[in-house]
Fold:
Amino acid sequence: MIPFNKPPLTGNEEKYVLESIKSNKISGDGEFTKRCHKWFEEKLNCKKALLTTSCTHALEMVAILLDIKDGDEVIMPSYTFVSTANAFVLRGAKIVFVDIRPDTMNIDETKIEQAITDKTKVIVPVHYAGVGCEMDTIMDIANRHNLFVVEDAAQGMMSSYKGKALGTIGHLGAFSFHETKNYTSAGEGGLLIINDERFKERAEIIREKGTNRSLFFRGMVDKYSWVDVGSSYLMNDVSAAYLWGNLEKADEINENRLATWQKYYDGFKELKDKGLIELPTLPNGCIHNAHMFYLKVKDLEERTTLLEYLKQNGILAVFHYVPLHSAPAGVKFGRFDGVDKFTTSESEKLIRVPLFYGIQDEEIKHIVSTVERFFDNE
Structure:
């Protein structure tokens, strides 16, 4: 069976993990965490980078930083992972879902403004598949309505929009290092990116259980105490050590994945030209990171049949999100603004094929030819 995913392993991860274990500093903010922070701040050109235990927790920190309260409204696409919504629901917010664009599966920027009310506080664009949302338009809307923008860039490390790294355009950004992502911190992990100076100090406090411990260790206060709400959001340094092994080879991993993505696109192009499938679209100004390769088929029935056919031929492909507004919790904690023209219908067509660092050409060819045989036999 060709797996859907294999976490990246480039060669030095085991060595760095052992170094971290032997350092006697395996909890948060050890030597490897500091290396990672420096790498992100330089690579992404952001004000502050803070490793977290998950992207979920990075988003929960965001909701605290923005003082989300009961009755506040947060606009986002319904086609996203539950954590995008949960982080704000936990603070009492109402989620306002808007439709997506069928070309990128990203939030439809033209539907945002009509969803804004006097209760709206935040817009959360989700960069699906590491392809940037239309951030110029979104930032213009936010600025005119005095709203915060939080980029859910869970899938977007090494991607950019008009020359700016995803996650660094809005006020705050969140990334994931789950084992399914391009770079991982040994299974779980996340990153909070701070682009607005106002949030730098408080973010450290929230991340350190509501204490000013970070200031204490930098010698800026003579003792530390409980000064705010917070929780234990620090990634342990052993996980950061594994992540550092990935980051050292970030460009190599990125180039390998992009090459795989292109092989898929070229391989499936004939089926696309025949009108049998749709392939991903890359808008002008967007540089992606080949986080995933997906194709869209005719409808839900055809997708179900194709997924089973791939499985029978030794290929583990998957579908992706079930739109949140159709889930029980989505109905309870949110509402859909406007018409669901594309969110449900497009989500039911989408199939993700295996894509990971080091996938072999023979495996790619087998996947492409198996999909071709499926359509030949229909």
Notes: The mean pLDDT is 97.
